[in-house]
Design goal:
Order of helices and strands: EHEHEHEHEHEHHE
Shape: globular
Number of helices: 7
Number of strands: 7
Largest sheet: 7 strands, parallel
Radius of gyration: 17 Å
Oligomer: single chain
Helix content: 40-55%
Strand order of the largest sheet: 3-2-1-4-5-6-7
Length: 245
C-alpha cells in the first residue's frame, strides 16, 4: 500500500512536534521525501529530520512564520522545490489553539489565529497548486478539529478558523480537480493542549463513545489513508472515537 506515496515529496507544516511530527515520520516511513516546516521549534525540527535520516529517509527542515502567510507560503514551497525539485503532497497541520469567547475575543486574537489557521493554508494551497507538475496527481490534506463541524463554546475564534478551513477543503476539492485531491482530517481528543497533563484527556474519555482517547499515530494513519486513495476527495475524516457525535 506504500506505492502511492513512495517517491513523492510531502510538506508538513508544524512538522517538528506533536501531530505534525508523527505525520512527517509516517510519510517518510511510507517512502516520501519530507519538508518539515517549523516556526520556533528549531531543535525539534532538527531531531525530526535526523530521525528520518537515521531510518534511511530524506528530509529537510524549513523555518517560516505563518503569521506572515504570503511570505511563509512562498518560502516553504520554494524550499521544497529547491531541495527536491517538485512537490506532490501538502499537509496543512500547523495551527494556533487558544480559548476565546464572544465577550473576550480581541482583534489580536482574530488576526493571529486567522493568519496561521486559515490564511497560511490558503496561500500554501495556492502556491502548491501553482508549483505542482501539471497532469501529475497531487494531494492536499488539511488538519481540522471536530469542532469545525460541531461548534461548541470556549474556543470561538479557533473554531471559526477551522470551520472556514473545512469550507476551503470542500471548495478546493472542486476547484483543483481532477489532478489534486483535497481532503481533511478532523482529530478529537488526541494530545493534551500545551500545559495540560494526561488527566486532561482522562476526563474527556468519559464523553467519547469508544471510551478512550486516541493518539498521534491514529491521525497519521488517517492522513496516509487519504493519500493512498485515488478516488476520495472533498471528505472530512473524523478521528475522534465518536466524540463529535
Amino acid at each position: 500500500m506504500t506505492t502511492a506515496i513512495r517517491g513523492k515529496v510531502a510538506i508538513v507544516t508544524g512538522g517538528a512536534v506533536r501531530l505534525g511530527r508523527e505525520i512527517a515520520l509516517g510519510l517518510s516511513d511510507a517512502g516520501a521525501g519530507v519538508v518539515v516546516h517549523y516556526g520556533r521549534s528549531r531543535e525539534a525540527a532538527e531531531r525530526t529530520i535526523c530521525e528520518i535520516a537515521a531510518a534511511g529517509g530524506r528530509a529537510v527542515a524549513v523555518e517560516a512564520d505563518l503569521a506572515s502567510p504570503v511570505e511563509a507560503a512562498c518560502a516553504i514551497i520554494g524550499a521544497a522545490r529547491a531541495e527536491f525539485g517538485r512537490v506532490d503532497i501538502l499537509v496543512n497541520n500547523a495551527s494556533v489553539f487558544e480559548p476565546s469567547t464572544l465577550a473576550d475575543a480581541e482583534p489580536d486574537d482574530w488576526d493571529r489565529q486567522f493568519a496561521v489557521n486559515l490564511k497560511a493554508p490558503f496561500y500554501l494551497c495556492r502556491e502548491f497548486a501553482g508549483a505542482r507538475e501539471p497532469g501529475r496527481r497531487a494531494h492536499i490534506v488539511n488538519i481540522l478539529d471536530w469542532r469545525a463541524t460541531r461548534p461548541g463554546a470556549g474556543h470561538l475564534v479557533y473554531t471559526l478558523t477551522k470551520a472556514a478551513l473545512a469550507t476551503l477543503t470542500l471548495a478546493l476539492a472542486q476547484e483543483l480537480a481532477p489532478d489534486v485531491q483535497v481532503n481533511a482530517v478532523a482529530p478529537g481528543a488526541i494530545l493534551p493542549p500545551p500545559g495540560e497533563g494526561a488527566d486532561y484527556l482522562d476526563k474527556l474519555s468519559t464523553r467519547i463513545p469508544l471510551g478512550r482517547t486516541g493518539n498521534a499515530a491514529d491521525v497519521a494513519e488517517a492522513v496516509l489513508f487519504l493519500l493512498r486513495s485515488e478516488f476520495i476527495t472533498g471528505e472530512i475524516l473524523h478521528v475522534t472515537g465518536g466524540q463529535e457525535l
